[in-house]
Amino acid sequence: MWERFYKADRARTEKAGIGLGLSIVKHILDLHQSPIHVKSEAGNGSIFTFTFPITPNISKNPEKE
After folding, report:
1. Where in 1-65 does DSSP place strands (E)?
2. What confidence category does residue 52 fall into, taking pLDDT thresholds of 50, 70 and 90?
3. N or C terminus of the chain with fewer C-beta within 10 Å?
4. Whole-angstrom Cα distance, residue 28 to residue 63?
5. 15 versus 47: which is more confidently predicted?
6. What is the DSSP secondary structure assignment for residue 51, as one 8-state letter?
7. In which band, very low, low, confident or very high, does the pLDDT at 47 lie, cut at 50, 70 and 90?
8. Contact at 8 Å (CB) between 37 and 48?
9. Distance CA 54, CA 32 (A)
């Protein structure tokens, strides 16, 4: 599911897309060390859930202590 998808013959399908979406998302999440969870039900679709880690807000003008 996370690998790039290549269509062998574009004439055989009417669906748009190039099959890179999930692969790109997974790569970005891996770079952030964030897991992705998938819940899928045949005929009903899929739900993808992920979170990004919170980083501290770095101010250009830090307050003096």
Report:
1. 36-41, 45-50
2. confident
3. C
4. 33
5. 47
6. -
7. very high
8. yes
9. 10
